[in-house]
Write a structure and sequence with these properties.
- The protein has 300 residues and is of the alpha+beta class.
- The chain has a single domain, classed as Roll (Lipovitellin-phosvitin complex, beta-sheet shell regions).
- Helices cover 18% and strands 51% of the residues.
- Strands 1, 2, 3, 4, 5, 6, 7, 8, 9, 10, 11 and 12 form a twelve-stranded antiparallel β-sheet that branches.
- Helix 3 packs antiparallel against helix 4.
- The longest helix is centred in the N-terminal third of the chain and has 16 residues.
- It is globular, with a radius of gyration of 23 Å.
């Protein structure tokens, strides 16, 4: 019996050693890596003498990522959006941008579906560079708007469309399919930490990842997120801006170990900060609370 237990212990030890893995982003030429990202956000402004002002927003973004070429730094990938739906509701009014709609704005947005946005991604899952968008990228959208809009309204609409397709939006949908890996062999369990900055929020973001399981070609991860104000952040010049953002969050995800691409992930964040409004030489600060839920799905 003792010998049987000893053999069993050795077998289990070797089995656990076999669980060591080095996770990397490894796209293959000719293979499509889809991702669908859903973000639901509730923003509450606690306005003195007026009470709470609540804004609900929903983003549904779909994309297909393919490998264009390999370089010494990593992989040049092309991200082609397949769906864009943005919905914002506040004060009884709703604003919608939808690539699946039928109005002229939706048709203009739909003309950008399938257009390639290029970026360089490292094997560790970090977006290193976003390449400039070709000047004619928005030409078809502009021509579509020209069929119904006068010049001034068309120019305003094009500004809105370009804001939708800004670098941060494209980067966010691609990053929802990526995970930042530590570049070393990992056992189960393993923990690693990534520090990043958010220029948009002027914040420091620390993410602690934990590898909790390996099964077949899937890795299970949990993450804890801490957000703090960045003392070195560049001061924003906008008349309306968010400052002193802080908070926390958590997420779970399943990663395909062959490609390093997401299978599925879900997360939540609770953030607090200050909404600053400058007008006519006067500055007003309003307490702000944001609750964010994210969900991403890719390919197994």
């Amino acid at each position: 019996m003792r010998r049987l237990l000893s053999v069993l212990f050795v077998f289990v030890a070797f089995a656990l050693q076999g669980q060591n893995i080095k996770l990397e982003f490894k796209p293959v030429k000719g293979v499509e890596y889809p991702v669908n990202l859903e973000v639901n956000q509730t923003t509450t402004l606690r306005v003195p003498m007026m009470g709470d002002m609540v804004t609900e927003s929903e983003q549904i973004l779909g994309a297909v990522v393919t490998l264009a070429e390999e370089t010494e730094q990593g992989y040049v990938v092309e991200a082609c959006l397949t769906r864009v739906t943005l919905r914002t509701s506040a004060q009884g009014q709703t604003k919608v941008y939808d690539s699946e709609g039928e109005d002229i704005m939706s048709q203009a947005i739909r003309s950008l579906m399938g257009k390639p946005f290029k970026m360089l991604v490292s094997p560790l899952g970090q977006v290193l560079e976003q390449f400039p968008v070709p000047e004619d990228m928005f030409a078809e959208a502009d021509s579509t708007l020209a069929t119904q809009y006068a010049r001034r309204r068309r120019a305003t609409a094009m500004e809105e469309i370009k804001a939708i397709f800004k670098e941060a939006t494209i980067k966010s949908v691609v990053e929802s399919g990526l995970t930042k890996f530590p570049g070393r062999l990992l056992a189960v369990p393993s923990v690693w930490t990534e520090d990043d900055t958010s220029e948009e929020l002027g914040a420091l973001v620390t993410v602690q990842q934990r590898l909790t399981a390996l099964e077949g070609n899937c890795a299970s991860l949990t993450a804890t997120i801490v957000v703090m104000p960045d003392p070195n952040a560049k001061k924003q010049e906008a008349s309306q801006r968010i400052e002193n953002i802080s908070g926390s969050g958590q997420a779970t995800s399943t990663i395909n170990t062959d490609s390093g691409w997401v299978v599925q992930s879900e997360g939540t964040q609770h953030l607090k900060g200050t909404f600053v409004v400058e007008q006519g030489g006067m500055v007003q600060t309003i307490d702000l609370v944001m609750d964010v839920k994210t969900k991403a799905s890719g390919v197994r």
